[in-house]
Specification:
Strand content: under 5%
Helix content: over 70%
Order of helices and strands: HHHHHHH
Number of strands: 0
Number of helices: 7
Structural class: mainly alpha
Largest sheet: none
């Protein structure tokens, strides 16, 4: 059990690190959206997705080594990762909301519709066992979401997926006190 001061400290550092992770996720979203018009940005999206667990681990290790003198329990490491990604998810949801309210104007959904309508993609979907008509229906359903609903979905998915990641990173990042 950690003390109240340690809990406040944990949350304060998680907020700071959540800002960095949130900025990484926003840049990753920007690369994804930008890749619709400039395919070279797809590499930025892929890099952001792959880099996320490594950046979270780096921030956890920095917190453990610089603040906690190199020792952190599994529960505290996991809590740190969960708080960090929760704050990042809040930031990402806000950025998503602003993007869909002010910048998108249906561009993302239209690009998905255009991709689905390409004959070569439709055929590749059929070969992989996907039904292009069902994908069109799902894209229409997504297109019907209001920006606030989409942002909430991003927030919820960010928390759920990151909580699973936090369980693994907490295990990797924990370190017992050194014995003399």
């Amino acid at each position: 059990m950690i003390s109240r001061e340690e809990y406040i400290q944990l949350r304060a550092f998680a907020r700071q690190d959540g800002l960095w992770i949130g900025l990484l996720w926003i840049a990753t979203l920007g690369c994804f959206v930008g890749s619709i018009k400039e395919p070279a940005l797809q590499m930025g999206f892929i890099t952001g997705v792959i880099a996320t667990p490594f950046v979270i681990y780096f921030r956890l290790r920095r917190f453990r080594d610089n603040v906690l003198d190199g020792s952190i329990s599994y529960s505290r490491a996991t809590a740190f990762c969960i708080f960090t990604t929760t704050y990042a998810s809040i930031l990402m949801a806000g950025a998503t909301l602003l993007y869909f309210y002010f910048l998108d104007n249906g561009m993302l959904i239209n690009a998905l519709r255009n991709n689905i309508s390409m004959p070569e993609l439709r055929e590749s979907f059929r070969q992989t066992g996907l039904n292009p008509e069902e994908l069109e229906t799902e894209i229409e359903a997504i297109g019907g979401l209001r920006p606030i609903e989409f942002a909430f979905s991003i927030f919820f998915n960010g928390i759920v997926m990151s909580s699973f990641l936090a369980l693994i990173l907490g295990l990797i990042g924990m370190r017992s006190k050194k014995r003399n």
